[in-house]
Amino acid sequence: MKSSVKLTVNGLEQEHQAEPRTSLLTFLREQCGLTGSKRGCEEGECGGCSVLLDGELVTSCLIFAVEAQGAQLVTVEGLGTPHHLSPLQEAFATDGASQCGFCIPGMLLAATNLLERNPDPNEQDIRKAISGNLCRCTGYDLIVAAISMAAELKKGARG
Ligand code: FES
Ligand code: FES
Known about the structure:
The chain is an alpha+beta fold. It folds into two domains: 3-76, Roll (Ubiquitin-like (UB roll)), CATH 3.10.20.30; 87-158, DNA polymerase, domain 1 (Orthogonal Bundle). It is built from five helices and five strands; from the N terminus they run ββαβββαααα. α2 crosses α5 (141-158). The chain is globular.
């Protein structure tokens, strides 16, 4: 039986019906129309579906939508816009850190979470933070460099 799930995504309230076993990923993609979070393994292994739930990095394929009742969510759509990229998106674009792009929404959320916790990460910190996010294209080096560059940009912006 469906029930109503109400939560806030990227600052906007969303309320839709969900089956008890509807994943948060399906809810975001199919009910909220936010397809930036990617459906990869659906087993918590690839990180493509990563979102921030009340400030914590989670894999939305492993959470039922009903469990997120009342939560504050951030998805990749909430990080920036095509005309106003976030520092991380800017750095990924400048460094050529994205190839096919499938893993990038999850990478950006993992990196956002890292920089919120640790504004000055070293390479090891960055590699650990994205260790739950698989990329089949880039070999990770350009992604690590982009996250490092974004940290520098943010430090510069803070003066
Ligand atoms: S789709 Fe959720 S971790 Fe892969
Ligand atoms: S850019 Fe293709 S999977 Fe990462």
